[in-house]
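Tutorial, part two.
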Amino acid sequence: MLLAIEQGNTNTLFAVHDGERWIAQWRAATDSTRTADEYAVWLSQLLHMAGLQMGVLDECIISSVVPQSIFNLRNLARRYLHTEPLVIGENAELGIEVRIDKPSEAGADRLVNAIGAHVAYKGPLIVIDSGTATTFDVVAADGAFEGGVIAPGINLSMEALHTAAAKLPRVAIQKPQRVVGKDTVTAMQSGVFWGYIALIEGLIARIKSEWDSPMTVVATGGVASLFHGATMAIDHFDPDLTIRGMLEIQHRNRKKS
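Running the prediction step on this input gives:
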């Protein structure tokens, strides 16, 4: 069975694939100081609760945007799964062309999303990933990564409002009933929520204006579900985009070995 580890700046996803489907998924707060042994204790307990054991995991793939964590995640695979993991950006062949000025600067998460989107949807794509940052990436019809846009994430923007302005409270992100808020909380919620909708719609329109053919827009990430039904600019909401990309990379590298 395959253990896929997808680590973002805020959360880390551990997912198990049995060869046919994803049978378990767990999330943990990203902590770059967590050791391989600590990961193993946490993971073994969750596997046990799901009726699984560490010994059934014989493959591992890692995608991380936190370089200082990769050492411990790699040791988790080596010590406890007894396998050498595929690490995006190191020993994993992606099988796509990266058409940007400095290909080494493309984040692992963005490349994995590009692959996950390409295997599921046709034509040129815009892939939106809403996390700590909100990224808008262009995937060509042949699957090549063409570059994109990086903007602050919605949670980051809300936290910045609270931190930088003494009188603004920390509030939950949700869709307000009205655009014009009648108090501080609803005014902040409206500014962030509808401001992000405007950001999404505006950037999608500008990206499409630079492209010479119709494009399909796919959104993923923990915050993307907030926008479902709030804009017609997004064609598909796909929460499994990243792990689908990781599974495809695993298959491509397995064929080469």
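The beta strands are 2-7, 11-17, 22-29, 59-64, 86-87, 125-130, 133-139, 145-152, 216-220, 236-237. In part three we will examine how such features are distributed along the chain.
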